[in-house]
Design brief:
The chain is α/β, with parallel strands linked by helices. It is built from 12 helices and 16 strands.
Length: about 475
């Protein structure tokens, strides 16, 4: 493939409409001021509906034709590379070489699917526009402004219909439950967020988070039984869930290790097919949210790596092993590092199921595993690194380990927010050697950037930045 083608928020009260809209002037002997006010109100545009407000918040580019969306994203990535070039210049590095950019920027690779592309959606439970505290949807407003409203996502264009169906059924269930929603932890309540994961294999996983408060085990068991009955033989059976999970959590976010996912019904995993391979996905394992877009992304990563023959691929933040396994046939060995233990189990299963034997996966924080792994690296084979961290970027110790490993001459950084913490990583990779920071290795230099639109209708995209030295 050619590269160029290639919130637990506080309770809120809905703001009433402006006085002028609630009290129109009706007297036939209106004063000149009243007549002007009436004319002003009649000419002012109507306030957007809650559905429009949600679409504007979640998918702010939804009104633009898709080609215009791509242009908006291209300009955003261009500004990011301009910023990186300026920051490198401040470090004494001659970086502004390509129209003020630090490296050539390819056109944004469009998503093969524009609507309903998400394979994972997270729905909150909170007060809706009608005052229903058990509304299942997405948020408009912010906790800081104390104006959160939970709006149903039935009209949101990037969420598939299956996810919306499960959310609607979950709302129906909790509306009939005598237990309250958990909006603020200290105010009590139980029903919390819903996560829906789907795959192109036709599988659907639902994960329901529940705050136990002071409920005993018998009461918890009763709620789980009711939930299972609703989704297997009740109205929720229409969702045809492959897996139904339940997690008791007293925190905003909880890993499986902190609070185990309890399988109430069905298979423990769902499966996805990508680039001819089959992948097993656990409830909290990372998997690119746009599967069709991920195929284009990984194909390009394979070309940019230029890894072949005896090369070793280092896949950092590997998730379920999608990148490493899809490129395993090109290299002699793949080494994956991932913090989520269940994702590593998935990666190992995925390798075995697909008959791939040249991969090994390490479970643990990259900042703990990688320095130890690379410090003793004596393999003469070429080493190529691919990193795909969260928005928080790479830990400094990971960057330092990569930088100080002379065997790594080529690095691909995949970032969904390059203007954020990833920018710090870019500078650490490219800055001159600094003994104070223990950065002794030769600096990298950015040589090519390719944006991939993994998130149509939003302002985000995935940027692949190639560094060499």
């Amino acid at each position: 493939m050619a590269l160029c083608s290639v919130l637990r928020p506080p309770r809120c009260r809905l703001r009433p409409p402006p006085l002028a809209l609630r009290c129109p002037v009706t007297t036939t002997t209106a004063t000149p001021w009243a007549r002007k006010e009436k004319a002003r109100v009649s000419c002012s545009p109507p306030e957007p509906s809650w559905e429009e407000r949600l679409a504007n918040a979640v998918t702010p580019l939804w009104r633009l034709p898709y080609q215009e969306q791509l242009q908006v994203k291209y300009e955003s990535q261009r500004k990011t590379l301009q910023t990186l070039a300026s920051r490198l210049e401040e470090l004494g590095i001659d970086a502004q070489k390509h129209g003020g950019l630090c490296c050539p920027l390819q056109p944004v690779v469009p998503s093969p699917i524009i609507n309903g592309y998400r394979n994972k959606s997270t729905f909150s439970v909170n007060r809706g526009p009608d005052g229903n505290p058990k509304t299942v949807g997405l948020y408009v407003g912010t906790g800081r402004e104390r104006n959160i409203v939970c709006v149903k996502a039935n009209h949101v264009e990037n969420i598939p219909s299956k996810h919306k169906q499960v959310a609607q059924c979950y709302e129906e269930f909790i509306c009939h439950s005598p237990l309250d929603p958990c909006i603020l932890f200290h105010e009590g309540g139980h029903w919390r967020e819903l996560v829906v994961r789907t795959s192109r294999c036709g599988h659907t996983m639902a994960i329901i988070t529940f705050h136990p408060q002071q409920l005993g085990q018998e009461a918890l068991a009763a709620q789980k039984a009711l939930l299972k009955e609703f989704f297997t033989s009740g109205p929720g059976a229409v969702c045809a869930l492959t897996s139904l999970y339940f997690q008791e959590s007293t925190m905003t976010r909880c890993s499986h290790e902190q609070s185990p996912y309890q399988l109430l019904h069905g298979a423990p995993h769902i499966s996805e097919e990508l680039l001819g391979l089959r992948f097993r996905i656990s409830p909290d394992a990372f998997f690119q949210v746009n599967t069709a877009g991920a195929e284009l992304l990984y194909q390009a990563v394979g070309e940019l790596c230029q890894a072949a023959g005896d090369a070793v691929l280092l896949d950092i933040c590997c998730g379920t092993g999608t990148i490493g396994l899809s490129l395993a046939h090109r290299v002699s060995k793949v080494i994956g590092v991932e913090v989520v233990e269940k994702a590593v189990e998935d990666a190992e299963w995925n390798a075995a199921f697909n008959g791939i034997s040249n991969c090994e996966f390490h479970s643990g924080k990259a900042e703990a595993v990688l320095p130890q792994l690379l410090a003793s690296w004596e393999d003469a084979r070429p080493l190529v690194a691919v990193v795909n961290p969260s928005r928080a970027g790479l830990h400094y110790r990971v960057v330092r380990a990569i930088r100080n490993c002379s065997a790594i001459r080529r690095l691909l950084y995949i970032s969904c927010k390059p203007e954020g913490e990833a920018m710090r990583n870019f500078l650490e990779l490219c800055c001159p050697p600094d003994p104070r920071k223990k950065l002794a290795g030769e600096p990298f230099a950015p040589v090519m950037a390719i944006p991939f639109d993994m998130f149509p209708h939003t302002v985000h995209c995935e940027l692949v930045l190639l560094f060499t030295r």
